[in-house]
Design brief:
This protein is α/β, with parallel strands linked by helices. It is about 40% helix and about 15% strand. The relative contact order is 0.15.
Length: about 325
């Protein structure tokens, strides 16, 4: 038994370095340093420190209706359901989310108009210098709202001109869930300086990660640690996740299943006046319930009624959106 325990200890202690090597191979080029934490909230808080230390700038820009964590990183989140009447950490500024469903501009002009607003926010809400711009490729808690690729392409030069880094919050969009791409930032056509991930990286185990470059990581001169972030059991689970995604072709399955479900949801959108919008990418789909298609007024009462009824059929769906009126449909990638 002593020998078995010794072998097991060696095996588990080796998981950290093995998982780090395997994960780096999956990351966008240039992101070659990884720091493991216990949760996405913890990862985003650490990432914000990396950015401020590296750029020597203080201001962080996030998008309205964005969720980047609770508790210790709630200052990065801009949703009423997670906000309290207590002061937030200074230096986190807000840019309007480029919402293409309730867009006040002509659709063909919207990406440029929203990017112009971001530029104005940098000019008037900061010193002109930025540390970080944080983006979810698809807002999760915000109601499964995709960021337009065209907006990102027009917004990035403004962030760069202010000295800012780019962070892709991939807590819900990573590891092939988008179907067409392994990472959400790849779908939007840009390479981030920092990438955070959590949730399905450990398939239920407390595991999250900050990935960045050697240069940015070197700016963190002092010790950092996460009490449970690199625990060997979670590291072993993370390795299995990477393996299974590849061996079982879960990214391609996500693409195929998403096309099937999206077609069905579009049928509901065409049939019912109260189904206002069907949106998302891959196995991250949303159905927004409204009073009617013309007004687009959120309909949380109808949502709640349908939501409760689905449970009678053994169907568990998520809830999100600013008005609490959006079905968040994010099944396991292994679903048939």
């Amino acid at each position: 038994m002593d020998k078995l325990q010794h072998i097991t200890t060696i095996y588990l202690n080796d998981q950290h370095s093995l998982f780090a090597e395997e994960l780096v191979k999956k990351l966008p080029e240039g992101l070659d340093q990884v720091y493991f934490t216990s949760s996405g909230s913890e990862a985003n808080a650490l990432a914000s420190q990396f950015a401020r230390l590296h750029t020597k700038n203080y201001s962080i820009m996030t998008l309205g209706n964005g969720y980047h964590g609770h508790g210790g990183s709630s200052y990065l989140t801009n949703m009423p359901s997670y906000s309290h009447d207590i002061p937030k950490t200074q230096g986190v500024e807000l840019a309007p989310f480029p919402d293409m469903y309730r867009c006040p501009y002509p659709i063909d002009e919207a990406p440029q108009r929203y990017a112009d607003q971001l530029k104005q926010n940098i000019e008037f809400s900061t010193s002109g210098n930025m540390a970080l711009f944080m983006v979810e490729a698809v807002q999760g808690a915000g109601g499964i709202v995709p960021v337009p690729k065209e907006f990102m392409q027009k917004a990035i030069p403004h962030v760069r001109a202010a000295g800012g880094l780019l962070l892709s919050d991939e807590v819900q969009t990573a590891f092939g869930r988008m179907g067409t791409h392994y990472w959400g930032c790849e779908m939007l056509g840009y390479k981030p300086d920092i990438l955070t991930m959590a949730k399905h990286i450990g398939n239920g185990f407390p595991l999250a990660c900050v990935a960045t470059t050697k240069e940015i990581a070197a700016s963190y001169k002092k010790m950092t640690f996460s009490t449970y972030g690199s625990n060997p059991i979670a590291m072993a689970a993370g390795r299995e996740v990477l393996k299974i995604v590849d061996e079982e072709g879960l990214q391609e399955k996500s693409r195929i299943n998403a096309e099937y479900m999206h077609a069905g949801f579009k049928y509901l959108e065409d049939k019912y006046e109260q189904v206002g919008d069907v949106r998302g990418h891959g196995l991250m789909l949303g159905i927004e319930m409204v009073k009617d298609k013309e007004s687009k007024i959120p309909n949380p009462e109808l949502f709640t009624d349908v939501w409760e009824r689905t449970k009678n059929y053994g169907l568990l769906l998520g809830k999100g959106g600013r008005g609490g009126n959006v079905f968040r449909i994010q099944p396991p990638m292994a679903i048939t």
